[in-house]
Specification:
Layout (H helix, E strand, L loop, with lengths): L3 H6 L1 H11 L4 H41 L5 H34 L19 E5 L12 H8 L2 E2 L1 H6 L6 E2 L1 H20 L3 E3 L4 E2 L1 H7 L2 H7 L9 E2 L4 H6 L5 E2 L6 E10 L18 E11 L4 H19 L3 E5 L11 E9 L4 E10 L3 H5 L3 E3 L6 E2 L2 E9 H11 L7 E2 L13 E2 L4
Parallel strand pairs: 4-8, 7-13
Antiparallel strand pairs: 1-10, 2-3, 5-6, 8-9, 9-15, 10-11, 11-12, 12-15, 13-14, 16-17
Helix pairs in contact: 2-3, 3-4, 7-13
């Protein structure tokens, strides 16, 4: 969340940012927060005066009793002041909670270089890699390929579970696991600690890493429990540090994690009725960074490079797009997507999403860094990026490496993880 200090010092910057995001309705909230902050500061001042008066009265009572004089009036005054202190303290605490709730509803302030735009169609391309794959035969989509191979089953999963799920079978399921192990291995080689997180998360932690809107649109609630299924391993991996003060010698924290992910995906994108690209359940290898504020943009570049190297090794053409203001998520300060080439659709589709959250997540989760010797504490920056989401990588591999006979050639870097299988073919 934003700090109240920023509301005090940069209200015009925040207002301009909300306008750029297309969130003019949030400006009223900003104004309300400024007013509540002024009320809070006045309460703080008045409370200090009351406490001082109460302390003076207590001293007076002591002197009167010591002198053997009647202290009833002073005691009565002290009791009345005590009630006022108690009431004003409660009012101040309640107002503070209202301010915190309001701060959580304001988005992060974007980087000044974030391009202005309304939606994903306005995201400019930063770079492209690889030549768009073309074929001398009619290209099939991944659904046609997978069903013809007998290794991708949406009909049965619709009966057992519902739409947005699937059964992966045989060599295609092995390919899914090969992608996971390949990505984990490459991230570990790059110096990232591998962690497997819990698949459920408390609401209090989820609120620190996700906007309220995202929780209601994306997260599955466990009935009768203070738990949600995780939408990405990023959330519990960042949540590991909730309420903690990190020693600066431990920074940067560079973590990669694998998990299954679960998303309702209620909203503009929706769920594919049939297909792997957007589903309720999927596998993802994630990468996160916790670092000093001055280092976050060096790691922003590093996280992007990590994902690029993975897709370059897979020889899948891609482009990187800069996320515009109208497409920018609530917690994001700067963001870009890596989009892979889909030959059947003849377009690029999102595979990785990189975000610099600056201090927004860490502040909401009360994560701090203690400065050795000085006693000072700073709020670190957090960043995250998809290393690889296997369902989307599967779609890209299947469509880019398909053959005329419907078989799929395995990218060479994945063959060692495929028990020597070099091509996925229909079993007789």
């Amino acid at each position: 969340m934003l700090s109240i200090q920023r509301i005090r010092e940069q209200p015009d910057v925040i207002k301009a940012d909300l306008e750029k995001r297309g969130l003019k309705e949030k400006i009223l909230l900003l104004i309300q927060l400024q007013k509540k902050d002024e009320q809070w500061k006045k309460m703080h001042y008045d409370l200090d005066l009351l406490k001082k008066e109460k302390n003076l009265t207590s001293q007076e009572i002591g002197k009167l009793k010591k002198a053997g004089k009647d202290a009833k009036a002073a005691v009565s005054k002290g009791q009345e002041l005590g009630k006022k202190v108690e009431m004003l303290t409660l009012k101040k605490e309640k107002l503070y909670e209202e301010i915190l709730t309001g701060l959580a509803q304001l988005p992060n302030v974007m980087h000044p270089d974030v391009p202005k735009g309304k939606n994903d169609k306005d995201n400019p391309t930063i770079k492209e890699w690889g030549k768009q794959t073309t074929f001398s035969f009619d290209v099939k989509n991944h659904i046609e390929l997978g069903e013809a191979l007998g290794m991708l089953d949406f009909d049965t999963s619709a009966e057992t579970t519902g739409t947005g799920f699937y059964f992966l079978k045989g060599d295609l399921a092995l390919l899914n696991q090969a992608i996971i192990h390949f990505a984990i291995g490459e991230m570990v080689k790059r110096g990232y600690q591998y962690i497997e997180p819990p698949l459920m998360i408390k609401e209090s932690v989820l609120k620190g890493v996700y906007s309220k809107e995202d929780i209601s649109h994306m997260s599955y609630k466990i009935e009768g429990e203070d738990l949600f299924l995780i939408a990405t391993s990023e959330h519990p991996l960042i949540g590991m540090f909730v309420g903690k003060t990190i020693n600066p010698s431990e920074l940067p924290l560079k973590i990669t994690g694998y998990s299954m992910c679960f998303r309702k995906e209620i909203g503009s994108h929706g769920i594919d009725e049939k297909g792997l690209f957007r589903t309720h359940q999927f596998n993802k290898v994630e990468q996160i960074i916790v670092c000093k504020p001055e280092e976050s943009y060096a790691f922003y570049d590093e996280l992007l490079e990590n994902s690029e190297k993975l897709f370059q090794a897979l020889k899948i053409p891609y482009r990187v797009v800069d996320i515009c203001s109208g497409d920018m998520g609530h917690i994001k300060h700067r963001s870009c997507d890596l989009e892979v080439w889909m030959p059947h659709q003849k377009e690029y589709r999102e595979a990785c999403s990189l975000t610099n959250c600056t201090d927004y997540q860490a502040r909401a989760l009360n994560i701090k860094v203690g400065i050795t010797g000085s006693g000072e504490k700073i709020v670190p920056h957090t960043l995250n990026n998809t290393a690889i989401a296997t369902s989307r990588a599967l779609v890209a591999i299947m469509e880019n490496f398909q053959n005329k006979d419907g078989s799929i050639t395995i990218p060479s870097v994945l063959v060692p993880y495929m028990y020597g299988i070099k091509k996925i073919e229909k079993k007789n």
